[in-house]
Amino acid sequence: MFKQLLFICLTLPGYVGIAQDTASTNSFSAAALHNAVASYHHYIDKQSRLYNGIEYFGYSPKIENIPYFLENTWQRGSIVYDGIAYDTVQMMYDIVKDRVVILHFNNFFRLALFSEKVSKFTLLGHHFIRIERDSLSNSPLVTGFYDQLYTGTTSVLARRSKFIEETVKEVLERKFIEQYQFYLYKGGQYHTIRTKKGLFSLLKDHAREVKQHLKKKKLKFRKDKENTILQAAIYYDSLNN
Fold this sequence. Notes:
This protein is an alpha+beta fold and 241 residues long. The chain has helices spanning 2-11, 16-25, 30-50, 196-202, 207-216, 225-240; strands spanning 53-55, 75-81, 84-94, 99-103, 110-113, 118-123, 126-131, 144-150, 155-168, 172-186, 189-193.
């Protein structure tokens, strides 16, 4: 039993130094063993709570484009899962299924985390939060992950999603189509921003100044909806501070 516990502890990251000392002295006090085993159980308990999901199989490689947010390769990110924060996690974000996918510590299996246990995560410089739909309010936000583009008195969220479009020509063609929605927080609630008119309607008390600011930055709603909404909100808040 002693040898088994010792072997397990020595194979964990962070116990390399202990292994080297043990090899040279060939001794391990009872107190040191107790501490090592306690640390082992703490490590395993924490990690097991992260690697808790369902096996992820992905999509057919014949579908054009990618189903993930920005990149289809593993990226280092951070996540709060089941109330515990984890850094430098190898992950991707499937925005077709709205699922966070991580690489298992064995570097072989891909796991789709349980979305209800993910409170927030950061990936590729974007910070995502999970919002649960409030059935008692008129909020346009459905349950899912939202990209926090800007947090101020007037906040901006983006809903990142894709769907599979199928067309039949000589053969069936399938591809992932990007579909982003934007929401602006004002007056105690979120509003869906679909048009330039809708944006300026919400910012009507400073609409003229905001329009001039966007013109100086050469931003046009139709060409760059995301950055236009973002810069409008930031500048609007600066006028009210």
